[in-house]
Amino acid sequence: MWTEKENKLYRAFTFGDFKEAFAFMTRVAALADAQDHHPTWTNTYNKVEIWLNTHDAGDIVTDKDRELAKAIDKL
């Protein structure tokens, strides 16, 4: 579930191993690039953390972030 705090949408994802986590990141990268909206994220082994906000709007959460979050949830 995405949470909104400090002007960011946040969600952590946990996978079976590093390869699964990296494959997920690759799919997210394709979505983000298609929407020209790129996340802040980290990956440690099987965990991927994503933060979304819109820099052009003053680093706040916008519909652009919510749309990308929904698309990520469908992966």
From TrEMBL:
A GO molecular-function annotation: 4-alpha-hydroxytetrahydrobiopterin dehydratase activity
Transmembrane intervals: none
Tagged with keyword Secreted: no
Catalysed reaction, written as an equation: (4aS,6R)-4a-hydroxy-L-erythro-5,6,7,8-tetrahydrobiopterin = (6R)-L-erythro-6,7-dihydrobiopterin + H2O
Keywords, ordered alphabetically: Lyase
EC number: 4.2.1.96
Superkingdom of this protein's organism: Bacteria
GO annotation, biological process: tetrahydrobiopterin biosynthetic process
InterPro entries per the UniProt record, alphabetical: PCD_sf, Pterin_deHydtase
Broadest EC class assigned to this enzyme: lyase
Keyword Methyltransferase: no
Family classification: Belongs to the pterin-4-alpha-carbinolamine dehydratase family.
Protein's recorded name: 4a-hydroxytetrahydrobiopterin dehydratase
The organism of origin for this protein: Taibaiella chishuiensis
